[in-house]
Write a structure and sequence with these properties.
With about 220 residues, this protein is of the alpha/beta class. Helices cover about 40% and strands about 15% of the residues. Strands 3-2-1-4-5-6-7 form a seven-stranded parallel sheet, with helices on both faces. The radius of gyration is 19 Å and the shape is globular.
């Protein structure tokens, strides 16, 4: 009988973060159900890493009502897709995704959750209390999790590294010229390039901060 693990690939970071876990469980004999979202570079990164998504969901954008509408639709899509695998699903693995967490809870399956952003309280309240086990980097205080989410201390598991170590471990550097050629940017070769990682301003935890700033 086949055994299944459902893995959350809703954002680009999760592709990098979960790809080795994905490979680990495949070697253990599990089949992986990959749930992705058409958001940013997520689908392209799955392709680059030879990870084929089983289900591709929508992104709700920056509007609160659109987020709510898409959230409801995504839950239904996940539930309908997983229906035929229900008996054989061993666990869900997520990085605080509300839709995946809700489905795992509703199906009464183990939910293994990773969190490097516990101060995203809206998302945290929707996900962390539902987790079977919560994995956090050593720099996050367990007391913060317990006090803010009422989560059991004994179910919090710390790991002794920061998240980027996972994908930097086998990261291969390339020369600037090669990078520019791969991205059709040869004309930039003599320019100084500054790389900026913009904040996800349309994420709920940023919307929450903006609302608080407006009110107070």
């Amino acid at each position: 009988m086949d055994k299944y693990i459902v893995i959350d690939y809703m954002t680009p970071k999760r592709v990098l973060f979960f790809k080795n876990i994905d490979n680990y469980f495949q070697k253990k004999g599990y089949k992986i159900i990959r749930i992705a979202r058409d958001y940013g570079e997520t689908l392209k990164m799955l392709e680059i890493n030879d990870l084929k998504p089983n289900l591709i969901l929508e992104w709700g954008g920056g509007d609160l009502f659109s987020k709510l509408d898409v959230y409801n639709k995504n839950i239904e899509k996940i539930m309908n897709y997983l229906y035929e695998y229900f008996e054989n699903i061993s666990a869900f693995i997520t990085l605080m995704d509300p839709a995946i967490s809700r489905v795992a809870f509703g199906m009464n399956k183990k939910l293994m959750m990773f969190s490097d952003l516990p101060d995203a309280k809206i998302v945290g309240k929707l996900t962390i209390p539902l987790a079977t086990k919560l994995f956090i980097p050593f720099c996050i205080d367990k007391d913060y999790i317990v006090e803010n989410y009422g989560y059991k201390r004994e179910d919090i598991i710390e790991y002794n590294f920061l998240d980027p170590i996972i994908w930097l471990d086998d990261f291969k550097t390339i020369k600037k010229e090669e990078f520019l050629k791969l991205n059709n940017l040869e004309s930039w070769n003599k320019k100084k390039i500054i790389y900026c990682r913009l904040e996800p301003l349309k994420a709920n935890y940023y919307i929450e901060k903006n609302i608080i700033n407006l009110l107070f």
